[in-house]
Design goal:
This protein is α/β, with parallel strands linked by helices. The protein has ten helices and eight strands. It has two domains: about 110 residues, Rossmann fold, CATH 3.40.50; about 150 residues, 3-Layer(aba) Sandwich (Rossmann fold), CATH 3.40.50. Pfam families: Kinase-PPPase.
Length: about 280
């Protein structure tokens, strides 16, 4: 039977011994290659014992139907717990199975198979950098704080609902980068200058755009029937934002059809930023 259909989304589980961030990120990157299918996603993190995994397997198997075979993306590193997971009737994509074996073979060194090492907790410096970056991103979300902007690794600039917040948080969480984001509003387009708080920080700015139709759709979910969500308003803001980026030589990308992971990769490459937590 096919794994998915037009009426039944394929259940997808991200199972991990730690936070599940790696399983979610790698799994979603693979699922993006199947845009015609729909998926229902559930993350099951912090599976540290065989007993816990037995309960997980029961849940996984209960999601099986004659029409749909669930997918399980796993970053469980403990060998005994991994073997318990493989008892499921679901399709398991073991992200730290054969690929990790290949790495061990090339390096001629056995992997530690430890949860702390997999999630960066073994290196206190990188872990602390990531936590501080998350705090910074939360404090400086949507222009909420203008304090200490000069210490930002990156400042995302865009009209409302172009993806500033999720991209900022992803860059902080996954890469330990201190990212502020600043919303562009009507008055910012009057002069053609960068808004005063970021006027002298143009070299750290990166612009986000979208398409008028996509932006109108996203805003309409928040404020249906409003001027804010109208196609005319969205077109105006995007047009002026693009002109602003061009005038100040601020690099930009269109977020309409990109995942957060893709946006983060493009931004880091364009801005010559390196991950601090890898």
């Amino acid at each position: 039977m096919p794994s998915g259909s037009a009426t039944a989304p394929t259940p997808v589980f991200f199972v991990a011994g730690g936070t599940g961030i790696s399983a979610e990120t790698l799994g979603n990157l693979m699922l993006q290659q199947f845009p015609s299918l729909s998926f229902s996603r559930r993350k099951i993190p912090f599976i540290r014992t065989v007993e816990q995994m037995r309960d997980v397997v029961v849940e996984l198997d209960s999601s099986m139907t004659e029409q749909v075979t669930p997918l399980v993306f796993s970053t469980v590193s403990d060998e005994e717990i991994r073997q318990e997971l493989l008892r499921t009737k679901c399709a398991v994509i073991d992200l730290f199975g054969p690929p990790l074996d290949d790495v061990e073979r090339v390096l001629h060194v056995n992997a530690t198979h430890g949860t702390a090492a997999l999630h960066g907790l073994g290196d206190t410096r990188r872990y602390d950098a990531r936590m501080k970056a998350i705090e910074y991103a939360m404090e400086h979300d949507d222009g909420a704080s203008l304090r200490n902007l000069e210490s930002a690794d990156l400042i995302l600039v865009a009209p409302s609902r172009c993806g500033k917040t999720p991209t900022s948080m992803y860059l902080a969480l996954q890469h330990g980068l201190k990212v502020a984001n600043y919303p562009l509003v009507d008055e910012d387009f009057d002069t053609g200058d960068l808004p005063r708080p970021i006027k002298d920080l143009g070299d750290r700015c990166f612009g986000l755009l979208s398409t008028p139709a996509r932006l109108s759709q996203v805003r309409g979910e928040r404020r249906p029937g409003s001027k804010y969500a109208s196609l005319a308003q969205c077109s105006y803001e995007l047009r002026r934002a693009e002109a602003l980026y061009r005038a100040h030589r601020i690099p930009s990308i269109n977020s309409a059809k990109m995942s957060v992971e893709e946006m983060a990769a493009v931004i880091m490459q364009s801005a010559h930023l390196s991950s601090l937590s890898s």
